[in-house]
Amino acid sequence: MSKSTTDWKKTADQLDIRVQNVIDGRVIECANRTGVEKRAARNGEPIYMAPEGTAEEADKAVDSALRSFNDKRWRGKSLSERQSIIAALAGLIEENAEQLALYDCLEVGKPISHALGEVPIAAGMLRDCAHLADKFYSSFIADGSYSAHIRRKPVGVVGAIIGWNYPLIMAAHKVAPALIMGNSVILKPSENTVLSAARLAELALDAGVPEGVLNVVQGSGAIVGTRLTEHSNVDLLSFTGSTATGKTVMIAAGQSNMKRLMLECGGKSPYLVFEDCRDYMDAIAADVVATAFQNQSANCMAGSRLLVQQGIADEFLEKVISETQSFVPNDPFDPDTAFGAIMNEGHLKRVLSYVEQGQTDGATLLCGGERVRVDTNSDTQGYYMSPAVLRGMSAESALAQEEIFGPILSVMTFRDDTEAIALANNTCFGLSAYAATSDFGRSQRLSEELRAGSVYLTATANPFSAYHELAREGHRQSGFGAEYGFPGLASYTVGTTVHQWT
Ligand code: NAD
Fold first, then answer.
1. Which of 26, 56, 130, 311 would suit a FRET pair with 407, their CA atoms being 20 to 30 Å apart?
2. How far is the CA of 307 from the centre of ligand 1 (A)?
3. The model scores a pTM over 0.70
């Protein structure tokens, strides 16, 4: 992508920031506010007063989605009509790229160049789902006068609850498969990132998605999130967020109407580096660091645990430290920034506390881990820290076990394959795992033994680029339910097995 020449400070100053619900086709400014100011991650300046959503607003959105599902204004359209509307929405997202990227950049602190790069990913998700939907087929058997097939139908009313780290992408990842399969949706963004989801729903109306089919309700997890998870007219709850909240969602789903669940939760992914990669250490070290610190490590799939074989550990770590030090925190509005700000003051303090506690518990800080000042031409300061690498923690320590969701790489060493696999699998999570080895047999064994929904194997640190038409799912306490591809579409359907005799 060519570098943007936009003056982002000026564009941001001209932004019309509104905190809105989209309910029943109406885009309405949120009436209730918490009194807590949301501040821009890059400079700490207030951008809006956080919304205080109500259970009544959630109810209205569910009622609206249910009405739209029952009267078939969306699911009753032909698939080709739905495909062209979803494709039109993808086009509108791209036309509004700068606005959407700015929203995510301001709220999350991610570099503007990255936020701009996420817009086509969100649009691509809509196009992928539209493209796959007419190739989605079901089982069929025929035997003489008897035949049977499985008719796949939309589930009904889908509640979608998402976290704050990739606001636009996550919204698109929920909305695209849910809508193309004919469901009606209530999307609840994180209370930390409210802007792009509402704009997406507004654009969906412009693209021709009927009123009430895609609703957005702002508010806290405790009030609006809980209401959606407990609501008896929500048929499927598709959740992306932490493992702790995922468990609460499961209880509410079970205690209400036994709604279906998809849970995309946390991770603490290992990156294993074997001695047989000695010749490629520079490239692999760069890859380890990029995998660990992308999006300031607010990334469910971050390779936050580096497991390196003892024979190369010291030499490899020198390269990792040098790479990490090239990730210098900088103003997200600078198009050259690769590592931006942390989402808010509270999260920054939480991440820094792990650096301190880790050292108290016996780990050694190799680099970074400090709050830093970045000049943004503002009277207030943003939320920045230098990415940290720590070594020598125990396998049961918080640094080795807990999802920090901030720029800390925990390093441990192993002797052999058995110890590597045991260490890699020694967390409650199972989202992704990365390994660098030039031994083909070992890489095959790793893909079997590593308890992770996605395993990325490389010999020479080719950049990992995922193919999203293949499905993925979490293992263990990273959640369950397929995303992407045909299984991802199937997640948003229910099957009726039809038996027929002629
Ligand atoms: P979070 O669990 O704090 O919040 C996620 C969402 O749940 C928010 O919208 C929040 O308002 C809502 N929520 C909170 N309490 C709730 C409740 N009791 N009932 C219903 N909803 C409730 O997570 P977060 O900090 O916003 O996001 C970060 C987490 O998301 C990390 O753990 C990360 O790994 C995970 N994540 C996972 C994936 C994945 O694909 N597996 C992708 C992105 C993020």
1. 311
2. 27
3. yes
**Residues at CB less than 6 angstroms from ligand 1:** 161-165, 188, 190-191, 220-222, 225-226, 229, 240-242, 245, 248-249, 264-267, 300, 403, 405, 431, 474, 478-479
Q: Where is 304: in which H helix or E strand?
A: none
| DSSP string of 447-461, one letter each residue | HHHS--SEEEEESS-
Catalytic-residue membership of 300:
yes
Catalytic residue among 129, 265, 277, 300: 300
If you ran DSSP here, which 8-state letter would residue 280 be given?
Answer: G
Which residue is listed with tokens 């799912």? 473
Q: How far is CA 406 from the centre of its chain?
A: 14
Positive or negative, the CA dihedral 127, 129, 133, 139 is positive
Q: Give 427-456 pLDDT, tens digit per residue.
A: 999 999 999 999 999 999 999 999 999 999
Active-site choice (264, 449, 473, 483) = 264
Give the helix ranges, DSSP H, for 191-304: 195-207, 226-230, 243-255, 281-293
CA–CA gap between residue 438 and residue 123 (Å, rounded): 36
211 part of the active site: no
Token pair of 227, please? Answer: 């209401």
